[in-house]
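Reviewer 2 asked us to include a model.

Predict the structure of this chain.
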Amino acid sequence: MFEKLKEKTKWLDPFTYVDLFILPKVKKLNESMQLIIFLISFLILSFLVLSVFGYTPVLLFSVFLLYVYLFFFEKEERVTLAIYILFAFIFAFILYYFILSFLLGTNSPLVIVFSGSMEPFLYRGDVVVLTAANTLIMKEAIVDFPIKDKLLSDYAVIGSRKNSLDVLRQASIKIGEKEFEFDEQGPIVVYYSDLQTRDIIHRAVLKIVAPDGDFVITLGDNNTRIDQDCKGMPSRFTCINSAPILEDSIKGKYLFHLPFIGQIKLLFFDDIPRLIFG
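Predicted model (structure tokens):
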């Protein structure tokens, strides 16, 4: 029964096409041509890695070491394995940027948690699956003046109070005579921070409805200050985002997460570079 099911579903496996249409032609080539194919696969894979992840020395060096290993220790199967590795990357790229993006309605369907700012709900290395952020439901503050690109401190006063753990934490903003409490159960969203030059995954705790659009204030569950607390000159050392985030620019909202499986990426993109370069 298992063999029949395997036979029926083999066409769903993209590697079936590699086995049937690519490898037989490669194996018919002489040794010199196969070596050229091996080198070409290395160049293509390196180019794709650069295109997807940017210039990441540790990752590129890892690809180089992988091919060195294949060349010297897998002589009989090095070309076959190189082709499998290359197409595995291509298939993963297609799955992520086309299939998952289409199904989930966002260009960033997966993100990895880089810090402990969302503990205990999310931990470093968790992979978060996102969906389209078309509708964000949370507490709202309505204002009658434009706020795009304005510092929050220009028109609001941030209030704090102790939480159930006796930790003093920002919990509201006051605009004019009205005070607006943060929504501690607001949706978790992902947006790009120009100051931090990376994606941030935090909770949207208040929506500000203004004449020039809808904006959100964000706060990590494990942080005491909102991302938009930028008193004085905005800096990556004092705040995360200099102004409330335009709702339309949010990349996605939390759907569910997979614990810790992003640790491998953190190893290459964060841990090892920090160890090497400080």
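The CA atoms of residues 21 and 240 lie 50 Å apart. The chain has six helices and eleven strands. We have added this to the supplementary material.
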